[in-house]
What we know:
Blueprint: H1 16-39, H2 47-63, H3 84-97, H4 99-118, H5 121-133, E1 138-141, E2 157-161, E3 164-175, E4 182-188, E5 197-203, E6 209-214, E7 223-234, H6 245-281, E8 283-284, E9 287-288, H7 293-322, H8 328-353, H9 363-372, H10 381-392
Parallel strand pairs: 1-4
Antiparallel strand pairs: 2-3, 3-7, 4-5, 6-7, 8-9
Amino acid sequence: MTLPSRDHLSWPFFDDARRTLARDLWTWSERELGADAESRDFNGQSRDAVDAECRALAQKLGAGGWLRYCVPASHGGTFEKLDVRALCICRETLGQFSGLADFVFAMQGLGAGPISLYGSDELKKRYLPNVREGKKIAAFALSEPNAGSDVTAMRTTARRVGRGWRLDGQKTFISNAGIADHYVVFARLPDAGEKAFGAFAIDVDNAGLKVTERIDTIAPHPLGTVSLSNCKVADDAAVGPPGKGLRVALGTLDVFRSTVAAAALGMARRALREAVAHAKSRKVFGKPLAEHQLTRARIADMALSVDASALLVYRAAWTRDTVADRVTLEAAMAKLHATEAAQRVIDDAVQLMGARGVVAGSQTERLYREIRALRIYEGTSEIQRLVIAGEVLGE
């Protein structure tokens, strides 16, 4: 008798369509990303090289049809609404092959997310088809120099000017700054009250928007500071009702926070696979490393962490897709556990591989650099703990 599969795709969170997505994307990634990701490391290369690779990856992901999962069916997507399980499957898979490909996919989703979820039909028609095809690059501009974890501290303003808006302020640590074709910018509406915020889609050719700084990180990707000075947009650039910008921002993050956890899960899976292969082939004191008890204990802990992360990730995604519009608690738990666990798993893989694990450009060294930022962006681990406590306490 043939026993049923016991890998995570056999779990009840998935149906045949999503299992097929996982298998098809894996096959595509092996063909389109595998050899390239193994041989090319962009650490230390020029910004121009990284920028060009991101644009090329967007076009490749678009041509492959994978960016259809970043937009709703009404504008060329696969599912009627953004499907969090599909987004998580894509990021988990891409994260095992290329941190940069995962980044590009994620930012097309996040940068277009406010428009997909809250935008008018006109905004959707204007932006989503090009995002889906990888022809245009999207960006999500929320963080500021003094407003990261506390988004309500943002100082960027949007004021009514005739039939439009004038934005002034600065956004920083913005992914895709320098290559984005549009930014969804969040701003305070000082004329509408202390807690009134807005979201606005702004094209890169707007004379009032400038990328004033590029920021380099340990895992290279386009990142920078965007300044807005007398940046004028028409009334129809508003994403969602004026005054409800925080709802747009937090609702979008509620969808995509689980996908950060999924990317971490993918990186952890890759690290575990690298560690297991090394432990089986490397001989120490006359026998394979895998036969030593300390090694076996470490691998057991790594495998446990990976499966626990997967359960939390796909619980959050399934709940968002089928049960509730908001999954603040589930998404926070998934992101906190998966990113922290992935950091430990990757560190364990480096330790098991010894000197080979820290060779510049090796798979484990790249994973070690790539995982670190996931514990920070879209809500630090400390913020996730506060969110979880607040939800449990009913606050």
